[in-house]
Protein: Fumarylacetoacetate hydrolase family protein
Amino acid sequence: MRIATIRGRLALLGTDGPVDVAEASDGRFGPDPQSVFADWPAFREWAGTARGQVLTHTPEEVGPPVPRPPQVFAIGLNYVRHAHESGLPVPTTPLVFTKFPSAITGPSGEITLSGDTVDWEVELVVVIGREARDVDEAHAWDHVAGLTAGQDLSDRTVQNAGSPPQFSMGKSFRGFAPIGPVLVTVDEFTDPDDLRVSTVVDGVTRQDSRTSDLVFTIPQLIARLSAAVTLLPGDLIFTGTPEGVGLGMKPPVYLRAGQVLETTIEGIGTMRHTLVDRPTATDPHRP
Structure:
């Protein structure tokens, strides 16, 4: 099953195209994409029989499949070769931080750069479908609604400011957590633990790896996180980025206004964003 947000409404993607869930279900499930996670098992059962009028839409009308997650977790240094390029040891326990939910944006459009050291980080994102507390690894996938693509955009200057540094602010500027273009349920993948992930900047491939290189697998992350906190339906887990980030290049290379950032995950799809500069102080349209 594949779901999306189209013109702000929940849509189910069938073989012929997307169907508006609220209309097709006669109101049993509402139009708000976020609300479906509160009744995810019932929605999955209904989706197998859903029928409705196919929606026409443009790529610009597709929003984030999870627009208002209650919690957003992120994992640092969770690929072996990314730890190596960072000059740091491979972690022995998950390095957890958060991206604030207001950073969420959709799979296309413009993203405003916060400064001149903004980096790319493609990530496979887990969407929680059932409340999870003290879940063991063997049952972790049972609590997953699906997977989507994400970028953990990072202002390296802000991220590394202070001693010791803290990550969340530098990773939570507006638009710094794009996700999409769809949410895909786990049964759609031949092997959800081995997916190709890539970042392309202005036609140049910067990251190209597979999630089989994860230090901590998705079941391990869910088990470790749920041992400490309650994972809620609709929560997101950014599972970490592979090697190839700008910070790891010599000299470092960062995103610039006018560049096009493409994020692709096998079996999910591609996001495309154009980077723009922050408005100047004299700009009358500056927020």
Q: What stands out?
A: The CA atoms of residues 137 and 219 lie 5 Å apart. Residues 2-63 form one domain.
